[in-house]
Design brief:
- By secondary structure, the protein is mostly helical.
- It has a domain of about 50 residues.
- Helix content is about 75%, strand content about 0%.
- The protein contains five helices and no strands.
- The longest helix has 17 residues.
- The radius of gyration is 19 Å and the shape is elongated.
- The N and C termini lie far apart (about 55 Å).
């Protein structure tokens, strides 16, 4: 027997709920960090910058770009 799409979705959600309930805060933070890094690692530079611009203001973005050894003027133009 194969699950319907709805049954499979419910199974996935139930599993995810139980896994999350079993995590402590440190595990949740680590999971969130790894998920963000993995998702953004699959993006191109433009998409990464678009995401970052929705979170940080221009001064913060320029500061972080400088901290990785790049010139913000060259990266952002």
């Amino acid at each position: 027997m194969e699950l319907t799409s709805q049954q499979l979705q419910q199974l996935i959600e139930t599993y995810a709920e139980q896994v999350v309930e079993g995590m402590d805060i440190d595990c949740l933070v680590q999971f969130a960090y790894e998920t963000i890094v993995e998702n953004m690692s699959n993006m191109g530079q433009e998409a990464v910058l678009d995401n970052i611009e929705g979170y940080w203001d221009t001064d913060e973005i320029e500061s972080v770009i400088e901290s990785v050894g790049a010139d913000p003027k060259e990266v952002l133009n």
